[in-house]
Amino acid sequence: MLLLLGLCLGLSLCVGSQEEARSWGQSSEQVGLRVPRQVRLLQRLKTKPLMTEFSVKSTIISRYAFTTVSCKMLNRASEDQEIEFQMQIPAAAFITNFTMLIGDKVYQGEITERGKKSDDRVKEKRNKTAEENGEKGTEIFRASAVIPSKDKAAFFLSYEELLQRRLGKYEHSISVRPQQLAGRLSVDVNILESTGIASLEVLPLHNSRHRGSGRGEDDSGPPPSTVINQNETFAHILFKPSVVQQAKIAQNGILGDFIIRYDVNREQGIGDIQVLNGYFVHYFAPKDLPPLPKNVVFVLDSSASMVGTKLRQTKDALFTILHDLRPQDRFSIIGFSNRIKVWKDHLISVTPDSIRDGKVYIHHMSPTGGTDINEALQTAIRLLNKYMAHNDSGDRSVSLIIFLTDGKPTVGETHTLKILNNTREAARGQVCIFTIGIGNDVDFRLLEKLSLENCGLTRRVHEEEDAGSQLIGFYDEIRTPLLSDIRIDYPPSSVVQATKTLFPNYFNGSEIIIAGKLVDRKLDHLHVEVTASNSKKFIILKTDVPVGPQKAGKDVLGSPSPEGDGEGDPNHIERLWSYLTTKELLSSWLQSDDGLEKERLRQRAQALAVSYHFLTPFTSMKLRGPSPRTDGLEEAHGMSAAMGPEPVVQSVRGAGTQPGPSLEKPYQPRIKISKTSVCGFRREEQVFSNIMKFSFSSFLGLE
Fold it and tell me: Which InterPro entries match (predicted)?
């Protein structure tokens, strides 16, 4: 009954509701009674802004995804009303454009340099590092504006990302959280892979914060109304539920992620090289190689804060991981609090007895004391260095630390920079550190930099999530190293401005990606040489790849694209190169301790981001307008948000006049952008202007 009532209200069919509610209110005032709850609900629904359309369109070309979100709202109230647009985007994405239509006025976003002086006006304070309002691996973009009575507003947000291969799959996740039943709702995804699509699946709608919620009656297979069409190289996925189908999934609007996973066909050998208009991308993902032996030290926080479920789940996960170790692997276990407790003072071979003894040691760990992160890492590195120094077998192996904590350093060395320096000097690039942070109190910025500076990865686990399953999933990504010391070379006379070409390790199911510019666009062949180590062998692969003259085709995105380097056609490989290069510059900036070097990296990253319209810590968004709406207005490209190396708050300044005389009072809403990165700081700046309020935050849980 409530569903039918809501649908009627959404279609504005309850004509007499206001008069009825008014008569109820008048009679209640006369007799001193409260307005009945049903009437208050009816009044509230009647005036709530109506979402007439929520649509997402994505085009993925060779793993590079272009996504545009369109949201249209109607203010049904008899007075001006503030309307908020909110969208979760992947943390690794760059927003490239934002456009807002209010009535017949257009506000267009523009990416510009962010002045260094703004840093001096910014307040910096410790924050809870983003646990309050976002999902894992996402950031939230918010924009709000005051809409005149009975008027409409439309929001267009675009972003780009390079999909990462994990466990043999690429994953494209789209947030579908309209917060109400939308008149028209659709997710439209096109995938184009020239080497061929090997596998493709659409998962049930998934809400990572509350497992099992946000799903329909059938938890297996794609969401209801999903249509999949594909051939060898192209796939089209359309999710277009009616209002009734939306209500069956969630009565108050769909809340979940629409997730597509796929993989591509690939030939063994040198990999797949694609060239377009003077730019190239090289995908390298070998398989069917014998795994390298692992030297792994598990470092587990056993301080008092780990008491209860966190420690129990972590122990259970380590039991599973120990059973997964291979006979050629070696391992040890360290528990740390204010004391460092080492299971064995040397690495142990994997045998049934050693696995059993390791499990017993883990089982008897008890939570107590503080958190000495520095000494725990130093002890683990010493164990690995000692083994490598005395290993005379000649076998090449990979040395890893899997480090798990739920807190900040409280005992011993507690200064972050000192811990980072000590770890870097001890590891000397020979030990890769993979970190996992559990809960809301962890110093995630420290863990992120520890992994970044020591050839590892980092993951975050929320309080309400299963730490054990997250740990196992993280380990699965690195359980099978296939190559080490990978170097990919191209002739300097043929290639310039290539992205990173040296990689410490390659794990099964992942992928190495290099992009660069060709010196001569008319080049017929590109010489490629790959060298790497695999167990007892040293691998060298050489080949000349044909790269005949190629030109971009028509715009498959169906919307304006940045021009490709001297050509009128869009170039997804050029954008992929700019994306990777910007990411690497931001990463280098974060790692550098040299002031002059940091400034040089900042300037390069800023210039590239402005050129390709990426919103980064070194760029900001200005809103131009208002300008009159034109009939041919297309959905705009997007303002881009990167998970920058440091939390940043960028100000957005409008350069227009007031929207018009239709408003009852002068329209002076606030403009605000805030970005809280996993670094754990929040920079905030607020500007009063003639546009709307912006907010961009990186949170890890949507409320």
Answer: ITIH, VIT, VWF_A, vWFA_dom_sf
Terminal-residue alpha carbon distance, the chain: 27
For residue 176, what pLDDT is reported?
A: 94
Residues of the chain with pLDDT under 70: 1-46, 116-137, 208-219, 392-395, 463-464, 548-570, 629-703
Residue 117: predicted pLDDT:
52
Query: 352-377: string of b/e by CB count within 10 Å (b at 16+)?
Result: eebbeebbebbeebebeebbbbbbbb
> What domains can be seen in the chain, in order of their start residue?
47-116+135-208+221-265+616-626 (2.60.40), 266-290+482-549 (2.60.40), 294-479 (3.40.50.410)
| Packed helices 373-390 and 416-427: angle between N→C axes, nearest 10 degrees | 0
Which tokens in the block code for residue 594?
A: 């040299």
Cα 532 to chain centroid distance, Å, stands at 30
Strand blocks (E) in 163-305: 165-166, 169-176, 184-192, 197-202, 226-230, 234-239, 256-264, 272-276, 279-284, 294-301
37: Cβ contacts below 8 Å, ≥ 6 apart: none
Separation CA 54–CA 88 (nearest Å): 14
Alpha-carbon distance of 564 to 578, in angstroms, equals 11
Query: Which helix (H) or strand (E) segment is 573 a member of?
Result: helix 572-591
Q: Strand runs (DSSP E) across 337-431, as ranges?
A: 340-342, 348-349, 398-405
| pLDDT tens-digit series, residues 184-235 | 999 999 999 999 999 999 999 887 543 333 333 345 789 989 999 999 999 9
Q: SS3 sequence, 17-38?
A: HHHHHHHHHHHHHHHCCCCCHH
**Where would I find the beta strands (DSSP E) of 27-127?**
50-61, 64-74, 81-90, 94-102, 105-113, 123-126
**Residue 464, pLDDT score:** 67
pLDDT of residue 137: 66
Nearest CA to 572 out of 548, 545, 546, 552 is that of 552
Tokens linked to 311: 């420690």
Q: What is the pLDDT of residue 684?
A: 33
* 233 and 196 Cβ atoms separated by less than 8 Å: yes
CB 477 within 8 A of CB 271: no
Q: Report the candidate in 201, 198, 195 with the shortest Cα–Cα distance to residue 171.
A: 201
Check: CB of residue 220 under 8 Å from CB of residue 241: no
Could you tell me the strand order of the sheet in which 64-74 lies? 226-230, 234-239, 184-192, 50-61, 64-74, 152-162, 94-102, 105-113, 619-628, 653-654
For residue 4, count CB atoms less than 10 angstroms from its CB and return exposed for 0-12, middle for 13-18, buried for 19 or more.
exposed
From 92, 112, 81, 10, select the one nearest 52 (Cα to Cα): 10
